[in-house]
Amino acid sequence: MATTTPSRGRRRAPSRMSRAAGRAAALQKPRVILALLLLLALTSVMLLDGYLRSEVGGDERVRSNAGSGKVPDSVIDGGPILSFRNGEAQSRSVPDRTIALTFDDGPNPTWTPQILKILQENDVPGTFFLVGSMVSRYPAIVNDLVDQGNEVGIHTFTHVDLSYQSATRIQREMAQTQLALAGAAGITTTLFRAPYSSETDAIDNYSWPVYKRLGAEGYTSVFVDTDSDDWKRPGVSKIIKWATPSKNKGASVLFHDAGGERSQTVKALGTYIKKMKAKGYTFTTISGATQLADAENAENAGGRQGQGLGEQGQGAQGTPVGNALQAAHRTATGTTLYEGKALVAAVAVAEWTVPGLATGLAVVGVAVLGRFGMMLILARRHHRRRNRRRFSWGEPVTRPVSVIVPAYNEKECIANTLKSLARSTHPIEIIVVDDGSTDGTKEIAEALGMPNVRVVRQENAGKPAALNNGVRHAGHDLVVMMDGDTVFEPDTVRQLVQPFADPGVGAVAGNAKVGNRDTVIGAWQHIEYVMGFNLDRRMYDLLRCMPTIPGAIGAFRREAVLAVGGMSEDTLAEDTDITIAMHREGWRVVYQEHARAWTEAPGSLKQLWSQRYRWSYGTMQALWKHRGSLTDKGPSGRFGRVGMPLVVLFQIVTPVFAPLIDVFTVYSMVFIDFQASLLAWLAVLGVQLVCAAYAFRLDREKYRYLLMMPLQQLAYRQLMYLVLIHSCVTALTGGRLRWQKLKRTGEVGTPAGAG
User: Fold this and answer.
1) Cα three-residue angle 135-137-138, rounded to 5 degrees
2) Tell me: the pLDDT tens digits for 29-70?
3) Is 575 in the active site?
4) Cα–Cα distance for residue pair 209/188, rounded to 1 Å
5) Given 144, 225, 230, 256, the catalytic residue
6) How many angstroms separate the CA atoms of 268 and 115, rounded?
7) Of the candidates 676, 748, 323, the residue with the CA atom closest to the CA atom of residue 514
8) Among residues 154, 160, 214, which one has the least CA distance to residue 188?
9) Contacts of 724 by beta carbon, 8 Å cutoff, 6+ apart
10) What is the pLDDT of residues 619-638, one digit of tens each?
11) Which of 279, 319, 330, 262 shows the shortest CA–CA distance to 125?
12) Contact by Cβ (8 Å): 568, 579
C-alpha cells in the first residue's frame, strides 16, 4: 500500500473551520424557524378560510318544538323589537302603516348590491342582519351599505343556533362579528337577530337565557311580524303577498339577501316598495321604528317627547332614521378598530391564498399523475430494452478502473467499504482520499494492507476537492466515484463500466440501494430510492437528460471530468453540477440498473434533515448555475430543452407543493366533504402504491416494505416539504454549507441477503 501526501492546496485551519461551522449553524436556525413559520402561516390561513366558509364543527342543529314555559307571556305576545332595561324585558311594535325592511344572511357579492340599488332608487332604508364571516369576506359591500344610510345588525359569525352553544361560544360569535364590522365599516352595532329565529312566539326555554344575557350586554333582539318566505322561492307574487302586513298594521318584514339564489327577492322588492308606498306606508330602520314607537307611547301616555317626529321614517342626519342610526351604530375605536382591520386583512389573504392554492394543487396533481404515467411507460420501455437478450453496449470493457473513495471521519465504514472493493470481479485500483480526518480513518485504511489501495492525505478541503485530488492521482482513463460509507457488490464495478463501450458515453449512474432498511427512516428512504430515484433515472435515461449521477455510485471518463473542470465547489450538489456540465459538453450520461451499491440511511430525523437539505439546496444551486443550458443549441442543449424543465417541475415545484396535498386533504375533510376527500386521498395513494410496486418489481425488491408507504406519505413528505422550504429560504437569503458529515454506524457491511 502506498501513502501519498500531495502538494499543498486549499488549506483551512481547524479553528477557522470551527468558527465557520458555528456561524453556519447560527445562520441555519433562523432559516429553519422561518420555514416552520411559513408552514404555520399557511395552516392558519387555511383554518381561517375554513372557519369562514363553514359552520365550524359541522354544528347544523336547529332546535324545534321546545317548551316556552319560562318565557314571559308579555314577550311572546309582544312586538318584534325586544330590549332589556334593568333586567326587565321591554317589547316594542312597529307603528301602524310603517315598515322596517330587514334582510338576513348577507352580505352576498351577487344579491346584496342589487338590493342596495333598489333601496337607493326608492329612497328607502333597510336593516341588514349580517353574518360575521361574510362581512369579513366582503367588507367593501358592508361599507357601501352603511354609507348609503342603511342599518346593520349581528346575525352571528357562523350562523349557528345559539341555543345549543356555550356562553363562551356565544360571546365569541358576537365579538368576532363586531370585529368584522369594525374592520369593514368602522362601526359596531347594538342590534341582534338570532339565526333560525322568526316571530317572538318561537322563543323557547333554551333560547330565552341567550336573549336575556345579550340584553344585559346592551343588545336589542329583533324578530319579525311578517315573513316573506322568499327563501322558499314561491314566485314574485307570493313573496309580495306574504310580505304585506294586514289591516294597515306596521311590521318588521323579513327578506333575505343571501343564503341561496335570491333572484325572486330582487324582482319582488322594487314592486313591493312601490305597492306599499301607494298604500300610504312609510319605511324606516329598526332603530327608527323603535324611536317612533317610543314617541308614540310617550304621546299616548300624555307626554310630548314625540312632538315633531311626524310619521315619516326616512331621512338624513337629524331625522328619525339618522338619529336612530346614531343610536344603533357606534364608531369603532382603539383596539376594536385595529383588530377588526387585522381580521379583514387576514381574511383577504385567505380569500386569495386558498383558492390560489387549490388551483395550484390541481395543476400539481395533474403534474404528479403525469409524472407517474411517464415513469411507468418509460421505465417499462427502458427495462425491456436493457434486459433483452441481444442488448449490448458493445465490446465488453475489461480494462482496469480507478475507484476513488473520498473519506472524512469514516472510521465506522471505511473497512467495510474497502473490503467490498477487494472482492471486485473487475480489475481496479483504489484511491482513498483522506480529507483531513481526525478519527483515524487513514490509519484504518492503511492497516488493512491491501496491495491495490493508495491512501492520499490532504488538509480538509471538502468533498469536491477530495474527488478532484483522486482524479489527479488516478492511473486509468475510467474512474469510479463512491462515498466512504458505501459498499459495492463484487460485480458492481464490472457492470458499472460496461456502457463505456459506447464512445459517446461520458458518465454512468449506478443503482444506489439502502442497506439499513429495517429502521423506519431506512424503510422510508428505501421506498424513495427504489421508486423516486431509480424509476426517475430510467425515465431520464430514455429521454437522454439524466440530471444526477449519485455520489454513492458513479463512473466517469477521466478526460470528460477534466474537460468540464472537475468537481466544482460552486454548489453543494457536486454530483448534479458535474452531470449537467457533461450534458452541456455533449457527453451522454446513462443509467446502469445492474450496478448496485449499498449505502446507509441517516439514523435520525436530524441527520435526515441535514442530508436532504444539502441535496435540495445543492440541486437548486446547480440548476441556477446552469440556467444557461436553456439556450444551448444542438445535441448539447438537450438537457436545457428537456431535462431542466422536468427537473425543476419534478424535483422542486412538485415536491414543494405535493405535501400540501395532505394539508389540503385535511382541510377538505374538516370543512368540505370528509368522505369524498378521504377517497380522493386514498386514490392518489393507490396510484403511488401501483408505481412503487412496479418499481419494486423491476428492482426485484420485497413488497413488504410498501406497508410503510402510507406513513411515509403522512410524515416523510411533510419533512421533505419543510426541507425544501428551508432550502428556498436559504437560496433567497444567501448562504453556503461545507461538506456535511452524517453520523454513521457501519452496519451496512455486506449486501448479502439485503434484498
Assistant:
1) 65
2) 666 676 667 767 777 777 777 777 654 445 678 888 888 889
3) no
4) 23
5) 256
6) 10
7) 748
8) 154
9) 616, 652, 655, 656
10) 888 999 999 999 998 888 89
11) 319
12) no
Averaged pLDDT of the chain: 84
Question: Secondary structure of the chain: what % helix, strand, coil (to 5)?
Answer: 55, 15, 30
Give the torsion through C-alpha atoms of 212, 214, 219, 225, to 10 deg: -60
Active-site annotation holder among 49, 104, 483, 632: 104
Helices vs. strands in the chain: H and E counts, helices first: 27, 21
For residue 626, indicate whether it is catalytic. no
Residue with cell 322568499: 230
Q: Which three cell numbers stand for residue 342?
A: 387585522
Q: In the prediction, which pLDDT does 316 show?
A: 37
How far is Cα 643 from Cα 343, in angstroms, rounded to an integer? 45
Residue 576 has pLDDT above 90, yes or no: yes
Q: Under a CB-based contact definition with an 8 Å cutoff, are residues 651 and 720 in contact? A: no
Digit-coded pLDDT (tens) for 179-207: 999 999 999 999 999 999 889 988 999 99
Lowest mean per-residue pLDDT among 324-333, 371-380, 477-486, 725-734: 725-734
Compute the distance between CA of residue 155 and CA of residue 132 in angstroms, rounded to an integer.
7
pLDDT band for position 545 (cuts 50, 70, 90): very high
Rounded to two decimals, the pTM is 0.67
Contacts of 64 (CB under 8 A, 6+ apart): none
Quote the CA–CA distance of 223 and 253 in Å, as a whole number. 9
Beta partners for residue 454, in sequence order:
2, 431
pLDDT for residue 304 is more than 50: no
Cα 337 to its chain centre, rounded Å, is 30
Backbone angles phi, psi at 369, to 5 degrees: -65, -40
What angle is formed at CA 125 by the lines to CA 120 and CA 131, rounded to 5 degrees? 105
Distance CA 145, CA 139 (A): 10
Chain segment 128-185, per-residue pLDDT in tens: 999 999 999 999 999 999 999 999 999 999 899 999 999 999 999 999 999 999 999 9
Tell which residue, 620, 541, 614, has the closest CA to residue 583: 541
> In this structure, how many other beta carbons lie within 10 angstroms of the beta carbon of residue 418?
22
C-alpha cell at 459: 488538509
Edge-to-edge strands, sheet with 428-435? 2-4, 453-458, 428-435, 401-407, 478-482, 553-557, 505-514, 588-599, 487-488
